[in-house]
Design brief:
Blueprint: H1 3-23, E1 27-30, E2 36-44, E3 47-55, E4 57-61, H2 63-67, E5 73-81, E6 84-88, E7 91-95, E8 100-104, E9 109-113, E10 117-125, H3 126-133, H4 149-162, H5 169-187, H6 196-210, H7 219-226, H8 230-238, H9 244-262, H10 269-275, H11 281-292, H12 296-302
Antiparallel strand pairs: 1-4, 2-3, 3-10, 4-9, 5-8, 5-10, 6-7, 6-9
Helix pairs in contact: 3-5, 4-5, 6-7, 7-8, 9-11
């Protein structure tokens, strides 16, 4: 092996290591002698993104890579320069400059870059997607074209965000929520709006939010309100990749987190959990940390100022 090949191989391994540290576990292979790769990270508050330059490389996640890394998020992919091809499930999309797509980190995916390409990859926590798109099925590996007003505004928002030197937690979380809300019409299933099952799902989730603090909230109560069997309720949520009990727990935790962010006085954490339907304070603390990565007390300190 000559020295130029050795240098290229070393550069490839170093670049792939950067990708794995910044974006989660991936594997890759070069597609020719002109491989090029560079990565710049940005993190401000809740926002974590990478600007990745690459050429002649195939980047992918199999079930092995998915299983060995945290997959509780999505990637919002912004094509800044060049072209790329993304695949997930049965969907395949070609991206050009200004196009946007979404990839689910919990499922295998495939990305190919033949020519010089620059992408901005933004990590979107699953709870942010659930808050913004919970009423609709999320569409991955589809193109939001650069010519659409949604793409123009979203590109401007995220590029400006990546240039901010310091961004607080409140501002960064508001930015993520604004971005998902902006992208919602393009990411939500187009046919679902007119579907009877979708209307029933909307009714169920609205009922859950209205009674989220009630300890007696359960699948039987929800099914009776919607007018379907409990088994039918389970199937309806399963089609969205959701479990009813898990969904209720996550919504309660989201409301708890919102209360902690906006609290004007320091409430006992056990009382807070109880107010949103958690009768066991130890379970509440464990569940909260599992969803947000920190305990309720640490989360409150983050927003104390």
């Amino acid at each position: 092996m000559n020295s130029s090949s050795t240098l290229r191989d070393d550069a490839f391994e170093a670049w792939l290591g950067q990708v794995n540290r910044a974006c989660g576990r991936f594997d890759a292979r070069t597609l020719g002698p002109q491989f090029h790769g560079r990565l710049r990270e940005y993190q401000g508050g809740a926002i974590k993104l990478s600007v990745v330059d690459m050429a002649q490389v195939h980047l992918y996640r199999t079930s092995k890579e998915v299983g060995s890394s945290a997959g509780g998020h999505y990637y919002a992919v912004f094509q800044l320069e060049g072209r790329s091809r993304l695949e997930q499930g049965d969907n395949r999309v070609e991206l050009s400059r200004g196009d946007i797509s979404l990839i689910d980190a919990s499922r295998p995916s495939d990305m190919t870059y033949l020519e010089e390409s620059r992408q901005l990859s933004l990590i979107l926590p699953r709870q942010v997607i659930e808050r913004g798109l919970r009423m609709s099925e999320v569409t991955c590996a589809s193109k939001i074209p650069a010519s659409s007003p949604i793409a123009v505004l979203a590109n401007r928002l995220i590029v400006e965000t990546s240039q901010q030197e310091s961004l607080g937690m409140l501002e960064s979380e508001a930015t993520l929520d604004a971005l998902v809300t902006l992208l919602r019409p393009a990411l939500a299933s187009q046919d679902a709006e007119q579907d009877n099952h979708e209307r029933m799902f909307r009714k169920a989730t609205a009922f859950i939010d209205q009674h989220i603090g009630a300890e007696e909230l359960c699948p039987e109560l929800i099914a009776r309100e919607v007018g379907i069997s409990v088994r039918g309720l389970y199937r309806m949520f399963a089609k969205k990749g959701l479990v009813v009990a898990q969904y209720i727990k996550n919504r309660r935790l989201d409301f708890c987190a919102e209360t902690l962010r906006n609290a004007q006085f320091e409430q006992k954490l056990s009382a807070l959990g109880y107010a949103w339907g958690f009768s066991d304070s130890s379970y509440f603390s464990t569940a909260f940390k599992g969803r947000f990565g920190v305990s309720p007390g640490e989360y409150r300190k983050r927003y104390a100022n």
